[in-house]
Amino acid sequence: MQAYRLFSGKLHYLAVALFTIHCSLFTPLTASAQADDFGLDFSLEVQKKIDKKWAVSLEGELRTRNNAQTNDRWSVGLGVDYKVAKWLKASAGYNFLYDNYDRISYFDETDDEVDDGDADEGDPKKRAQYWQARHRFNVSLTLSKKLIGDFKFSLRERWQYTYRPEYTVDERWSYLKNAYDGKPHTYSGKAKHVLRSRLQVEYDSKNVPVSPYASVEFFNQMSLEKVRYQVGAEWSITKQHAVGAFYRYQHIDNDDEGLEADRHLIGLSYKLKF
Questions:
Q1: Beta strands in 22-67 (DSSP E)
Q2: What is the DSSP letter of 188?
Q3: pTM
Q4: Considering the chain, what is the average pLDDT of its residues?
């Protein structure tokens, strides 16, 4: 009980911080919306409750980018939830990700073409477009509690490990020659550990079928990598069927590969429980 009361006090402080962060950061970010990308997100989830503590789920997702004109990624995931206490849930999961990569390299001062004057430093050099699989594992702890009436506040801490295998493309497009180079190129494999911290407030009432929510999530890999701001709602049509919609703004703070961009996202979801 002492640990529970301590958590309640900390969660109340985090709830105040959540609203402060949204008010101070979200407004200036929208001012640069014209330079950001836009995409759509569609997801389908099937959840089976085994008993009062255990539940398993299977989820599929499709995401777009480039102003919703390009398929960005599709994924399939399997998850397991365990209710440790009324206010604490543990989760683990695996996701198979299939990503649409668009990699562009740029000339630097060491390239012969720059020395010869055929290209300037920073000009696009070569481009490769391909689909590749990634494997992702995660473990989470979610603490939640109703603090003000039917408003439920939660904190989720998630460790995420993603592995991208080595991949070889047959050729790349050369901007200088305006043609494919006809040479295979190998992109090395990469493993990545990320800590994701999400703060969320949700209106959760048994008398109202719609549950609106707002959240902010921080992605950290030694330093802050990106931040997600999200508002949405879930509508329970029946005890088994629910649909949801959300708006998300993703701000990239540090992407060492240059593969992600700031993005606005509209999402639709369907959930089946049995």
A1: 37-49, 54-65
A2: P
A3: 0.85
A4: 90
